[in-house]
Amino acid sequence: MSTTVVDPTVEFQQKMRERIRANIGDLMPDAALAQIVEKGIHEAFFAPRRVPQNYGADKIEPSWFVKFLQDACKSLVEQAVKEWVSRNQEQVLAMAKETLEDGVAQAVLNSFARLWRGPIAAFDDKLAAAVSNFSNR
């Protein structure tokens, strides 16, 4: 006994063709009807979605199919990451330490730069004025 696997997309397309054919009758050829159904399915499930916003440009969101895959895979990816982290704790701690140290050092440098920006600019202005006065003599 053989089991036939039915592709849900093909089955859905066939049902859509039959429904449109029943409502429109024989006004269009099968090829045109198949093209309309295929385009409709693509736009409904696979094309990125434009979501109007109250202010600014519309937001582009992933297609229904991509969103479905993201939601379906999210827990699997989270579990894989947790397992990798638990197997590589030393490497994760080393990366975290390096990132924190680099971040703290950069924050200190940025704060010194902001702290000295005003006095250095004032010194630069005074020096330029002194050089200008000296060269005008």
Explained architecture:
The chain has a two-stranded antiparallel sheet with strand order 1-2. The chain is elongated and about 100 Å long. The mean pLDDT is 81. It is built from four helices and two strands. The protein is mostly helical. It has helices at 8-24, 30-46, 64-87, 89-136; strands spanning 49-51, 59-61. The chain starts with 7 loop residues before the first helix and ends with a helix. Helix 1 crosses helix 2. The longest helix is centred in the last third of the chain and has 48 residues, at 89-136. It has a domain at 88-137.
Summarize it.
With 137 residues, the protein is mainly alpha-helical.
